[in-house]
């Protein structure tokens, strides 16, 4: 909502105009009623009578005292009366302005106290009430997001701790069999060793996820920038993921201009594209192609990674970059990460001054990374 001060401004101007009219009217009323008008004779008689009783003087001496105090000093009394009227008017105006400040202060207190009700102010301050309620809504949402992320993290830690037992038990069990039977047949020994190695690798992956959780919460991202051949980096990653993609008949293609370069942190950007590519391979259909495309538009380089698979539900599309969010509700002990890959990717891209987004439908899921082309001078 825009800062529409018009209602408040009209209210203040109206009050000022009314006060500007009423102040002199009141002053003239006092002057013509008490000093020169209707109640002048009554006031004079009252004053003379007071002097007779209080000071024990004659009627004529009382009249003379009235003449000396009031009639001869008429200008002084008029000035004093005007000052009193102005002070009363000033107090009235100040009290009206203070009421607005008190309302805003009460609204801020309600915002700080996190009370559940809507903040309501005077009609002429609806724009301030709208902004306070907007801030309140954002703070409430942020608090809910933090609690949800914390709950997801706690659930994840419990899941990972539980999952650690399975591969560890298998490693210990197969190593015990190998230790107890040194003359075991070669084929059987090779099979046990292969299973043990597989479980040990899974155990290492789970431990790395624990480290990711800690690093994500405790470390800020520090960039060590250098000139990067982005085309070479993307092609190299496509080659590295061949063993993961090939068994399911998947391919990874790269379409990028030669010598496409960017100024950034090579290790951290590699992690961004590694996480995105691993995600694309994990959630794509068998015998499909994952397409990596990079293009430069003016001072922006855009990298998109497209895969064909089940679409991401629209209500979850904006959550995939939140930490500890996992698309699969039921986590497998053999697959699924800590829900940090895309969240870390967003943090790294943001640290580079870029943006990351996702779109998904029944045809394809596309993750786009936009990065500014920077130099050592302006990075």
Automatic annotation (TrEMBL):
Enzyme class, UniProt record, top EC level: transferase
Catalytic activity: ATP + protein L-histidine = ADP + protein N-phospho-L-histidine
E.C. numbers: 2.7.13.3
Domain of life according to the entry: Bacteria
Pfam families membership: HATPase_c, HisKA
Coiled coil spans: 132-159
Record-annotated Histidine kinase domain positions: 159-375
TM region positions: 12-35, 75-94
Gene Ontology BP terms: cellular response to phosphate starvation
UniProt GO cellular component terms: plasma membrane
Alphabetical list of CDD domains matching this protein: HisKA
Keyword terms, alphabetized: ATP-binding, Coiled coil, Kinase, Membrane, Nucleotide-binding, Phosphoprotein, Transferase, Transmembrane, Transmembrane helix, Two-component regulatory system
InterPro entries reported for this sequence: BphY/WalK/GraS-like, HATPase_C_sf, HATPase_dom, His_kinase_dom, HisK_dim/P_dom, HisK_dim/P_sf, Sig_transdc_His_kin-like_C
Family matches, as PROSITE patterns: HIS_KIN (PS50109)
Compartmental location: Membrane
GO molecular function, one term: phosphoprotein phosphatase activity
UniProt-listed PANTHER family: PHOSPHATE REGULON SENSOR PROTEIN PHOR
Protein name: histidine kinase
């Amino acid at each position: 909502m825009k800062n529409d001060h018009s209602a408040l401004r009209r209210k203040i101007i109206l009050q000022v105009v009314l006060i500007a009219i009423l102040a002199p009217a009141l002053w003239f009323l006092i002057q013509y009623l008490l000093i020169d008008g209707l109640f002048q004779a009554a006031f004079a008689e009252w004053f003379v009578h007071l002097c007779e009783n209080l000071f024990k003087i004659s009627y004529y001496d009382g009249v003379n005292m009235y003449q000396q105090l009031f009639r001869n000093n008429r200008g002084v009394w008029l000035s004093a009366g005007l000052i009193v009227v102005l002070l009363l008017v000033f107090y009235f105006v100040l009290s009206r302005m203070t009421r607005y400040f008190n309302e805003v202060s009460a609204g801020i207190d309600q915002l700080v106290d996190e009370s559940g009700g809507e903040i309501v102010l005077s009609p002429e301050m609806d724009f301030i009430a709208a902004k306070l309620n907007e801030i309140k809504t954002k703070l409430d949402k942020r608090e809910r997001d933090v609690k949800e992320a914390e709950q997801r993290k706690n659930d994840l830690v419990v899941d990972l701790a539980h999952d650690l037992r399975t591969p560890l038990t298998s490693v210990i069990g197969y190593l015990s069999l190998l230790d107890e039977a040194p003359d075991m047949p070669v084929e059987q020994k090779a099979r046990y060793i292969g299973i043990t190695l597989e479980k040990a690798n899974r155990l290492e992956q789970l431990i790395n996820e624990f480290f990711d959780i800690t690093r994500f919460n405790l470390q800020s991202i520090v960039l060590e920038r250098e000139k990067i051949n982005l085309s070479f980096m993307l092609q190299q990653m496509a080659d590295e993921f061949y063993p993961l993609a090939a068994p399911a008949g998947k391919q990874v293609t790269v379409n990028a201009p030669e010598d496409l370069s960017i100024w950034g942190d090579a290790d951290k950007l590699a992690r961004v594209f590694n996480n995105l590519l691993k995600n694309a391979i994990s959630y794509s259909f068998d015998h499909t192609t994952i397409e990596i495309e990079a293009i430069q538009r003016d001072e922006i380089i855009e990298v998109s990674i497209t895969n064909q698979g089940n679409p991401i539900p629209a209500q979850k599309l904006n959550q995939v970059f939140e930490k500890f969010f996992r698309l699969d509700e039921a986590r497998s002990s053999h697959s699924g990460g800590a829900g940090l890959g895309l969240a870390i990717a967003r943090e790294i891209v943001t640290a580079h001054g870029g943006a990351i987004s996702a779109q998904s439908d029944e045809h394809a899921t596309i993750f786009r990374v936009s990065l500014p082309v920077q130099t050592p001078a302006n990075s």
